[in-house]
Amino acid sequence: MSITLYRLEGCPFCEFVVDKLDELDLEYDSVWVEGPHSKRDEVKAITGQRQVPVVVDDDYGVSMSQSSRIFEFLETTYGDADSPEEVEAAF
After folding, report:
1. Domain 3-89 has what CATH class?
2. CA dist., res. 20 & res. 72, Å (int)
3. pTM for this model (two decimals)
């Protein structure tokens, strides 16, 4: 699996990314993280911070956080958007 999503149960920003992955019919692995930020060492090792969601795409060598950035990456990499303006319009 080339895409891994680090997510927290009940996180609306994580669900936003899940919806985009599903919309694009992409396979991915979910890694569930714990609620307390102090217990998210695996996420911190990847991005330098403890915020979720985090997507790691091994095929493209990309690791990123922030749902809007992840959404833009997924749409421009795997979607039909031809320009950043089309991605912005999707929000």
Report:
1. alpha beta
2. 10
3. 0.83
